[in-house]
Design a protein that fits this description.
Layout: H1 2-24, H2 27-34, H3 38-45, H4 48-71, H5 77-94, H6 96-108, H7 112-138, H8 147-163, H9 165-172, H10 179-202
Helix pairs in contact: 1-2, 1-4, 1-6, 3-4, 4-5, 4-7, 5-7, 5-10, 8-9
Length: 205
Amino acid sequence: MRLDKKEHIIEIAERVFGEVGYEGASTRYLATEAGVNIAMLNYYFGSKDGLLKAVLERRINTLRQALLAIKEKPISSWEKLTQAIDIYLDRVLANNCFHRLIQRELSLNQRPEIISTITEQVLNNIDAIRAIIQEGIDNGTFRPVDVEMTIASILGTKYYISNSTHISSRLLHMDLNDPDVLEAQLRPRIKHFILDYLQAYLLKK
């Protein structure tokens, strides 16, 4: 029962943090939305920082487990990479507000423990993608490229478009503040571009 209640609080907190940000999500508001009292919230997480840390760890860890499962599949390195990119973009674009929250925490650099959690968890996910690319290089499927810069290019494309919506909306001729546009137009366009880029860059002629 305790685990169920704790997971419920984390689930609600993820939505609240994504919608109103860290500053807008008071402990009282978080408790009210989760249908619990502040004492119970503090019992499980200690503080609002502790709750945010739990939210971050769960969301990012879930993505890592999915990436690691892809890495172990008996398929080609290119198929692994396309599936990894597909699931990565699906996860991060499905909750863009939450990922903006992550970027805001990183840029403000006000909560060292949260920064450390985000950094370590994200790097673990990056390692899973790095391993897939390196496997392709080792088995001769991919060209011997700079793996880290390749990953930075993938992440950079998504982060720039998501975090510079006013510029990106005009650049791409679509309203990136419209959730329907994000789902129906932006997500498939980013996927197509990144996979097309990686195919041209990585695969041997």
